[in-house]
Write a sequence for this structure.
């Protein structure tokens, strides 16, 4: 118990000491804690300049031939692949097409009695004539089933036994003249009842008139006291025929025909159309058809169709595509009908016509193995340079670009082959020096729609710039030309739109070394300082500023010389409320410089950093005074950065860069401390 009291007493003493120390007299002569508060004022971020940007507007800064960077883009003649390759020859149509096989329903459906003489009980050579009234003759096709696998081309036979005796067995043999058509056998037919139906296959057979039927193997139970009648029912329900003569009643029957009516240009697989028509006339056979009515119910080429039920067909091609991979195939439905007609597949119908004169092709699809692309080949004869820079040997290749580019190139499987193209240097005396594009690219100079360009540079020491550098007597060269041809090829089936155009060009961009022989200054476009401080913050900074720093968070200086970075801060009333970038861009150069002078003046010069040559680092710091802090807390401030480079025959590369990242001020104020 005594130990617990001692422990409690010690804790009270310690806590009382802490409270008293916090409430002891501070530097202001009052009681309470004291601390510092730091404010961050963002000024600018990611500001930078390349050496090219620093010097390009200064007339006194030159390299050996007066160029900062050699840049050349030579546009060439358009390769009109769409216009040339879609100029395909559309075929005209003049074709005779044999009438197709025709399917007839209910060709024959008849019955008649065959007399069985009194007293006959066995085979007695009974014959009878089967009357055919429906046609004079008919030829059946070689098919035993239709497209739905239903049986066709067969004659159904059924008999009914006469009253008076049963038929134990009988065979019926059918002949067309002397030609055997077939026979059927029946057994166990009770008097007065009918047999099952049996069939004779008429595939590849003909009926040229009335038929003969012979009875054989007749066996009966009982004997007729008087002549009896055995009824014979015969029918042809479904037939596919190649010819029928004087068919008494041909109901409207649809006949489908598919045929290739015209050949097309080799390799042409499909054509799509912007406009136009395909006009066709389909006429019946010229020979007498004995009343055959003939009409086209529908005609189609692929998905393009017309159902006008007329012999004159006009297919609207607008927005349509026709598949021509197997030539120009048409499908049409004939409707034939009439009384006492003759239909004969040895006769032909005529299909004539063609594409209307206003037909406009939208695109073609072609087979690369068969189609002729030579019409789209482009001859090349372009002048790239009229002289070679005298100091070409001193070019820095760091960051150089030299390439053959094709814009507007999105045609899958299409290739542009430049194996026959070359750069040629032509001298005053007519002599020449050449280098082929294929040798530059390692053996094959081909551009496809994926890369769309061919680099003219390599690491082998034999690229375009190496060749330029190695030319002798450069001062005598009058022209550098690109000559040869661009051949159009393909690696697979290609679809080409009529509007497809390829825009080839050569682009060369080479950074030169820059020699500075004079100090230069460059002013960045001003920015608005972030106005993030509240009125209370500004009051605290004004009254209780302790210390401050201007900080560059990180930087880089590639130049081989120190660079001064001078920060300007000030107010420009004329800029307030404007989008400064847009406003300055709208001015002439002279007006723009006049506006920049309003910020970049000695009264607004705030602080200066020195960035050491070819150095980079995480931070640069400059101390700030209380008056600097007051400056930073003004409203509507603009910041500008000036770069100053001292020139004394310093060699720069145009890609050298000076950058500063995250420039800001750190302002520290005192809380509960003496103001001094």
């Amino acid at each position: 118990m005594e130990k617990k009291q001692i422990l409690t007493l010690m804790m009270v003493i310690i806590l009382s000491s802490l409270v008293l120390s916090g409430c002891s007299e501070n530097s202001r002569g009052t009681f309470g804690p004291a601390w510092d508060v730091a404010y961050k004022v963002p000024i600018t971020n990611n500001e930078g300049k390349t050496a090219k940007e620093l010097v390009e507007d200064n007339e006194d800064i030159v390299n050996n031939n007066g160029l900062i960077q050699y840049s050349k883009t030579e546009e060439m003649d358009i390769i009109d692949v769409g216009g040339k390759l879609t100029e395909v020859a559309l075929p005209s149509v003049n074709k005779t097409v044999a009438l197709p096989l025709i399917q007839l329903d209910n060709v024959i459906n008849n019955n008649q009695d065959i007399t069985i003489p009194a007293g006959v009980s066995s085979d007695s050579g009974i014959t009878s004539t089967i009357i055919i009234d429906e046609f004079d003759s008919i030829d059946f096709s070689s098919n035993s089933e239709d497209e739905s696998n239903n049986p066709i081309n067969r004659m159904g036979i059924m008999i009914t036994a006469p009253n008076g005796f049963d038929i134990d067995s009988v065979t019926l043999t059918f002949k067309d003249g002397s030609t055997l058509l077939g026979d059927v056998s029946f057994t166990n037919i009770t008097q007065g009842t009918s047999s099952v139906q049996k069939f004779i296959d008429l595939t590849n057979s003909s009926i040229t008139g009335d038929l003969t039927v012979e009875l054989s193997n007749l066996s009966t139970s009982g004997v007729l006291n008087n002549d009896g009648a055995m009824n014979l029912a015969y029918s042809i329900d479904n037939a596919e025929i190649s010819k029928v003569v004087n068919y008494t009643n041909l109901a409207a029957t649809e006949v489908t025909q598919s045929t290739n009516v015209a050949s097309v240009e080799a390799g042409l697989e499909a054509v799509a159309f912007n406009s136009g028509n395909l006009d066709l006339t389909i006429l019946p056979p010229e020979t007498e058809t004995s009343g055959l009515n003939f009409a086209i119910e529908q005609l189609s080429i692929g998905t393009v169709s017309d159902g006008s039920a007329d012999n004159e067909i006009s297919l609207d091609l607008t927005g349509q595509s026709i598949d021509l991979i197997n030539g120009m195939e048409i499908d049409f439905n004939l409707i034939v009908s009439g009384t006492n007609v003759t239909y004969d597949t040895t006769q032909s119908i005529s299909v004539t016509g063609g594409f209307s004169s206003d037909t406009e092709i939208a695109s073609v699809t072609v087979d690369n193995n068969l189609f002729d692309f030579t019409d789209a080949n482009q001859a090349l004869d372009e002048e790239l340079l009229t002289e070679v820079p005298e100091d070409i040997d001193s070019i820095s290749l760091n960051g150089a670009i030299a390439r053959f580019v094709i814009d507007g190139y999105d045609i899958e499987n299409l290739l542009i082959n430049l194996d026959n193209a070359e750069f040629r240097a032509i001298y005053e005396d007519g002599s020449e020096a050449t280098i082929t594009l294929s040798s530059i690219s390692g053996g094959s100079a081909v551009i496809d729609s994926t890369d769309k360009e061919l680099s003219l540079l390599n690491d082998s020491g034999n690229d375009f710039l190496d060749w330029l550098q190695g030319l002798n007597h450069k001062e005598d060269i009058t022209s550098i030309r690109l000559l040869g041809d661009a051949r159009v090829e393909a690696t697979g089936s290609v679809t080409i739109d009529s509007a497809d155009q390829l825009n080839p060009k050569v682009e060369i961009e080479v950074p030169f070394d820059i020699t500075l022989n004079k100090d230069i200054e460059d002013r960045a476009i001003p920015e608005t300082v972030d106005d993030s401080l509240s009125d209370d913050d500004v009051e605290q900074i004004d009254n209780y500023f302790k210390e401050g720093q201007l900080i560059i968070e990180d930087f880089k200086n590639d130049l081989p010389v120190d660079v001064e970075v001078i920060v300007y801060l000030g107010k420009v009333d004329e800029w307030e409320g404007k989008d400064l970038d847009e406003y300055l861009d709208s001015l002439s150069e002279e007006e723009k410089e006049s506006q920049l002078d309003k910020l970049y003046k000695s009264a607004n010069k705030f602080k200066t950093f020195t960035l050491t040559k070819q150095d980079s680092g995480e931070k640069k710091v400059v101390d700030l005074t209380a008056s600097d802090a007051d400056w930073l807390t003004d409203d509507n401030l603009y910041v500008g950065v000036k770069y100053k480079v001292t020139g004394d025959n310093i060699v720069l590369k145009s890609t050298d860069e000076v950058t500063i990242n995250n420039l800001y001020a750190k302002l520290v104020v005192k809380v509960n401390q003496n103001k001094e």
User: Anything to note?
Assistant: The first helix runs from residue 2 to 22. The CA atoms of residues 402 and 508 lie 4 Å apart.
